[in-house]
Design goal:
heterodimer, A: 116 residues, mainly beta, seven-stranded mixed β-sheet, B: mainly beta, six-stranded mixed β-sheet, 11 strands, 57% strand
């Protein structure tokens, strides 16, 4: 069966500090991978998605970046955090190989980030 | 443009039936998903509709009308544990567009 891991679960960081969040998927190959952010009481904002190693599409131009160094590893980074970066960060995967988003997405447990 | 609308909040009584509506206007459509999200947790998949009509899964049913850009999630025999946010999402090309979610409170 497939599982998705995210870490850390919780993070408190000062403004201007760097960030690295990691997501790994087990039990599947060539998944489509996604990073979302959810502000308190709000919906999911798509940040990045990837359909393969080294292939990253950005949805929101800001101080965040993403990388996919391995097939089942997805990393979200920032060089300098802003207060507005606080939120609940969710990684998700769906079955790859299809151009259209018709597969169910499965979400990781999330990382709660507080920037002070 | 891309737009998905859901009511912000709904309240219902334990044992009752509640219908959560979702309307969408998107440039592409490859199916409509419903997810449940308990406070502080990740969303979990509930249902998927790609053809018009009703899909039933136990106490949960989901309906789709593509010509009207409309879907609803029907929850029967409400239980306290159904208190959560319900997210409507449309599948596009590679990516999914989410509504802001409907927060459902189930009262005893």
């Amino acid at each position: 069966s497939q599982t998705i891991h995210q870490w850390p679960a919780t993070l408190v960081q000062p403004v201007g500090s760097p960030l690295s969040l990691e997501c790994t998927v087990e039990g599947t190959s060539n998944p489509n991978l996604y990073w979302y952010r959810q502000a308190a009481g709000r919906g999911l904002q798509l940040l990045f998605y990837s359909v393969g190693i080294g292939q990253i599409s950005s949805e929101v131009p800001q101080n965040l970046s993403a990388s996919r160094p391995q097939d089942r590893q997805f990393i979200l980074s920032s060089k300098k955090l802003l207060l507005s970066d606080s939120g609940f960060y969710l990684c998700a995967w769906s079955r790859g190989g299809a151009r259209i988003a018709k597969e169910t997405q499965y979400f990781g447990p999330g990382t709660r980030l507080l920037v002070l | 443009g891309q737009n998905i609308d859901q009511p912000t909040e709904m309240t219902a009584t334990e044992g009752a039936i509640v219908q959560i509506n979702c309307t969408y206007q998107t440039s592409g459509f490859n199916g409509l998903f419903w997810y449940q999200q308990h406070a502080g947790e990740a969303p979990t998949f509930l249902s998927y509709n790609v053809l018009d009509g009703l899909e039933e899964k136990g106490r949960f049913s989901s309906f789709l009308s593509r010509s009207k850009g409309y879907s609803y999630l029907l929850l029967k025999e409400l239980q306290m544990k159904d208190s959560a946010s319900y997210l409507c999402a449309v599948g596009g090309t590679y990516k999914y567009i989410f509504g802001t979610g409907t927060r459902l409170k189930v009262l005893a």
